[in-house]
Amino acid sequence: MRKHVKNPNVYEFVPYANWVRAMNVKRALISVSDKGDLTDFAKGLSKLGIEIFSTGGTASALQKAGIKIKGVSDVTGFPEMLDGRVKTLHPIIHAGILAKRDNKKHMDALKKHKIGTIDLLVCNLYPFEKTIQKQNVGMDEVIENIDIGGPTLIRAAAKNYRDVIVVTNKKQYNDVLKSLESKGKLSLSEKEKLALDAFSHTAQYDSIISNYLREKWTDEVLPDVNSISMRKIQDMRYGENPHQKGAFYESLPKVTEPCISNAKKLQGKELSFNNILDGDCAIECVKEFEKPTCVIIKHATPCGIASASNLLGAWKDAYATDTYSPFGGIISFNREVEKNVAEELSKLFLEVIIAPNFTKEARDILGKKKNLRILELEGLDKKIRRRGMVFRSVVGGFLSQERDVTLSDRKDWKIATKKKPTKKELESMEFAVKCVKHVKSNSVLFVKGTQTVAIGGGQTARVDAAWIATHKGKENIKGSVMASDAFFPFRDGIDVAAKAGVKAIIQPGGSIRDKEVIEAADEHGIAMVFSGQRYFRH
Predict the structure, then answer these.
(1) For a disulfide at 37, which of 170, 299, 472, 474, Cβ 3.0-4.6 Å?
(2) CATH, domain range 255-376
(3) Which residue of the set 94, 114, 299, 478 is catalytic?
């Protein structure tokens, strides 16, 4: 349909109407970083009589596979230069992509300059994301993995989607080839979908670059313009409820810190929307502790937390906090789960168990419960550097804030009451503060040593949270330490705690009624400490 002229590097223009009835795709430009599955796709294109042009490493790979190709320099008449920084940035390439085939002026311009059309673009981008995940990677290497020509090609082809097929992902190869083999073309809806994927591909790429460089070059945490880049990990059967659609996305660049998106499922059903929310809560809570610790989560809030000298003790103490709420719960550990712990866990109906690893004996025991999800999360037993931002969506926008990973310094605490806390009570307060910051507000909890004995959270009044906790904890609360995520607005919460037998309280302070609250503690002979730091969790 298009014949050579004297210069073998340039193609004579043939009017669109003369060849549209045949195979729509005559020429393809292939320039990819990820060459996976490319050979079979290119062979398929070649069998259809599609002429292939390519660049650099892609050209070498295709030639090595015995596929007939021509270099981009054969089209442009200009060599690749600047160590490959300039290859496809040329008017002959971009005019061949951007020309609207039904626009006479465009096609006359191609004819005048002896430029042939490019009907199919196969392009993915330099591995910037993989590069920044390397240990001790230098900025020079990072910068060289910012693709320029690729995004330009992709955006050009996607803009002209009616006339140019743009392929940016190897998962698209089979469908594109099948359509070309069966119909000689792609439908408009197919081309629209590919163009949309192409714009998403370049948008995600630029977002990863900007987020990485902002972190490296500035100390901004809340920039005026912010990009959130995500990649789907899985579709959910449904969202929070069966009538809602749901999916799970990981943030990009990929977080290297142990987190729910990095967990490896060893067995069980697919994680549900609510499993992932609860799993995140369980993981983030257990990260607070260095000793062997167990966290039990139900509906995105803890119902038992304990640290002990061994994991079995931690499990038993956490479970003792509330023996009925863990039904259908999520459990996280910061140590390897062994046989003795697995035997105890197998007695209950649980949804998810998360740990840094599991012994073979433990997996054999838990494996008898086929639907139980077992998640292995490497690094959960190590000291973890926690940092970064978190986002929450509202209709029409997002809220962003720093992760709440800091704790008030004990040297900044102030004893507010006549009675002073004992050394053991201060140690329990430290444990209690780490726990209460993970309970839904308004929240209070009670601890003995490094074990929760009662938890009350998610209430509209702090006194109600105190009442619920004391009602559930009953006699176990006597002699305990109480922690509150925010100040007490009235003395009633102190009165409820005193009646239950609390000996010491830690709270942020800062209420206009602090004096009244302190007087209540003094009346009951309770030691009270102001930490100066609030831990709301909405």
Answers:
(1) 170
(2) 3.40.140.20
(3) 299
